[in-house]
Amino acid sequence: MLSRNSFFLIALFIVIPAMAGSAFAQETKVNQKKIELERSKKQKKEKKDYDQAVKRHNKMQSKSTQASMKKTKKESKKRTPSKH
Fold it and tell me: How far apart are the first and last CA of the chain?
């Protein structure tokens, strides 16, 4: 039969890693959420920067070119199937 001390040691080697594993899993979920939040913020910033660059580019064009670009954009919207 196992003595009381050996039973305690065996239980200790089983319980402690199990507790550490669950803590690690919880920390992983928190880290994953932080990464997703940072990725989302980065994507929003990149889109905003891109839109600003497009506006800047459009403003640098001549009036006739701006009109042509505007017309092309409208025609493109008409030809593109709507997203539902």
Answer: 70
